[in-house]
Amino acid sequence: IFLSLCLVITLIFAKEVPFKGNAALPTKSNEPAEPEGTGPLAVLKGFRNLPTGMPSVLIVTGLTWLSWFPFILYDTDWMGREIYHGDPKGTDPQIEAFNQGVRAGAFGLLLNSIVLGFSSFLIEPMCRKVGPRVVWVTSNFLVCIAMAATALISFWSLKDFHGTVQKAITADKSIKAVCLVLFAFLGVPLAVLYSVPFAVTAQLAATRGGGQGLCTGVLNISIVIPQVVIALGAGPWDELFGKGNIPAFGLASGFALIGGVAGIFLLPKISKRQFRSVSMGGGH
């Protein structure tokens, strides 16, 4: 019903202007820019003619998302298993404990979204002050700390039960509170993830006089590939160690650290003055 209402409002009030191809804008060297291609193949062809610095952005983006997807995919499962000591295939009390953990994780995601929303207003001022590279790298190091914290919290939660989740049907209140704080804290680097890579990409494309859409399409490929890797590999990786979600989160911490270090040396320098002319855009 809500989507239908939004659709009706859009159809009534949005004034659509038919697209007309515009002449290519000149680049900084006053040379005409290449016209932006269209269609799925244009994205693949875009890899051959990326703006200077764009390959480095793709690498750091891929590493950053590799550090995020384990938590994005398994955060509520982590709450249900490691924090609430439940098991979706166990006894009735274990199933109930798991469901309570999932609900608590959903509430944590609500807090995460609230913090993300408020943090989004601070991203552009911070990028103007210290530069987008510093903001991006700092967010990666924050994720590294947060993902390591999830592993430590898991060990803390399980230590009294000798690492056996199925035997525990209780959840410590202090541990639950720390987890919710962690969920909320991650809203800050997530706001960076949803804006800075896209803004940097737009700025690099602008130096060629256009092609932001094509470069964003290429950037999205460096987001999809990590998602597929984690979706297919996190389960076998966890089973290899037999520690629930802890191995995946530990690996995520390592990817975040590598992404932060790589960002220091690889990300292109974009002046604060240049960044002011770039509109922040997210991937959600």
UniProtKB/TrEMBL annotation:
Q: A Gene Ontology MF term for this entry?
A: symporter activity
Q: Which GO terms describe its cellular component?
A: plasma membrane
* Record InterPro entries: MFS_trans_sf
Q: Which UniProt keywords apply?
A: Cell membrane, Membrane, Sugar transport, Symport, Transmembrane, Transmembrane helix, Transport
Cellular localisation: Cell membrane
Per UniProt, what is the membrane topology? Multi-pass membrane protein
Q: In which pathway does it act?
A: Glycan biosynthesis; sucrose metabolism
Q: Where are the transmembrane segments?
A: 54-74, 104-123, 135-156, 177-196, 246-267
Q: Which family does it belong to?
A: Belongs to the glycoside-pentoside-hexuronide (GPH) cation symporter transporter (TC 2.A.2.4) family.
Quaternary structure annotation from Swiss-Prot or TrEMBL: Homodimer.
Kindly provide the name given to this protein in its UniProt entry. Answer: Os03g0170900 protein
